[in-house]
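Hey all, sorry for the wall of text incoming. These are the two entities for the joint prediction.
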Amino acid sequence: MNFDLTRQQEMLRDTVRQFADSELAPRALELDERGEFPFDIVKRTGEMGLIGIMTPKEYGGTEMGHLARMVAIEEISRVYPPLGFFFQTCHLGHYSIQNWGTEEQKTKYLPSLCKGEKIICDAITEASGGSDPTTTQTTAQLDGNEFVINGRKVYITLAGVADLACILAKTDDKFNTILVEKGTPGFEIVRRENIAGFSTMPVNELAFTNCRVPKTNLIGQEGRGLGIGLTTISVIGRTGVAGIGLGIARGCYEAALKFAKERKLYGKPITELQAIQFALVDINVDIEAAKWVSYYAAWQIDQGKDLRAIGPDIARAKLVSCELANRVAPKAVQIMGAYGVSEEYHIVRRLKDALQLFPAAGTQEIMKATIGRSIMA
Amino acid sequence: MALNIVVCIKQVPDPEHFSKVSLDPVTKTISREGIPAIINPLDKNALEEGLRIKEKFSAKVAVITMGPPQARRALEEALAMGADEAFLLCDKAFAAADTLGTACALAPGIQKIGHFDLVLCGNETVDSGTGQVGPQIAQFLNIPYLTKVKEIAFDEERTLIVKRGLEQGYMRVRVKLPALLAVNKEINKPRLTTAFGIIAAAEKEIKAFDCRELGVDPNDVGISGSPTRVVETFQRVSQRRREVIYGSPEEAVKKTTERLKEFGALVQ
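and here's what came out:
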């Protein structure tokens, strides 16, 4: 067994870490306070080849793979989780196009998406529920060479800034994945949801009213939309969330460790108090365990393993890393006392971001159901 | 104008981990065990300057280092930053070299690469800080050199106007190529490696040369070619007296001033 990252993955980790420390850390608080989408930062990550990290080189990507992607998301989220969430979300659309799209769709969309010049959102969730997409009510009826789309989507991350939406809709009793460009008549962003965490990433409600798109906007074969959506959420969404969870946990841990080394109580650093030592050790062990569960899932995707077969491993990664982030952030608050809840110390914003990981890419309960099915079979 | 630029780089212990550095009492050298190695920061500035010249004009940038097999990692990073070629001078005979022994290997290494117009290096390293290797290489190559370089501009095709820092000011110097310039950190801010650079680096080869291939006498390099002998090493212990002065800001400033005068730190 070889647990080493490749030299390329190592160099990627180091450079993303430097990028996060030098270009994201000084702006994190201000960005969150303003709540505006950081277009300049997204463009910069496009120039660095990070947005196209798992996209084939011929379409403008760097094709470094899924483990490299997870490591990059982790390093970014260690400092600024909303940008990690951007990667998690936009990659859903990238993956659908590069895996099931036509040559024309790949050539038309992927290069500008990889550069960060264009943004894509993935729209599956509806008011009827996100965990069970078979309840989708949005319809896409065929009329000649066009789909006529009607319906609403809720909690769609990035929709407010996206140039393109990759939506799941029903055509009669079959599901289709269809691309809808911004500005298409009948497609509108209804409102921005007011939610805690990932404050710079807009989450919106979408409405489709007799929205006509060419039939050539269909991704993959007709009627395969549900499979495309579910595979994408598993392979991209859950591994992405795992990376963000690891990053949030590491960010909180490093901040708490630094604080504990500097903070003096009873004339000595609080790291000399066993209660603090044990808390930091617990976090440290927790992170290491979740890291390897998560890296293993991403590594298996890179090895070309059967995606259905490794579904439970991917679910484990999402489950443990999401729990990890939500365990570590409050522990960091406890170690840091009142400083922990001060915005200046960067734990509170991470805690709010961590909460968003619970529903993202499938709830924890759906993860357990997925793992449960595999062990009870 | 097509320039051939050679950048000399060195792997050094990461200054972030200097608190873990210890001195080996037997060998009297720095123990680097468990300390990650990075490209010497000023050498990165040198590489960045080479890459900027390449982007402005037509140039080829080669990087060269002397070191053990793991020094290859520094070259891989330099290739990922954008260097075109990389050369590793690796031989047991090169080990434990002082600055002269290092320059004795690097100079023929640079000549081995082929034609060169400009040699760039960091002004000094964070682990030794002598600032001698660059000038020594230039002496061996019989080319002019300038140290503490903070700006490079082209005057004519093969003439540079170089701004070099002085203790209280700067000096502008016109220098004809070929030349060696040892840069300081004010010259630029090194770029971050990109994923594009990392995948491009995988296509580039790192060529390794040993002592024989360089045509160098083993007695001229490594410990044999190094006149420096370390007689003693010791860890400097810095001890400061600390005193806390209480009171209102006005009172505290007054008391502080009085105390500083008592110590002779303030004259008036």
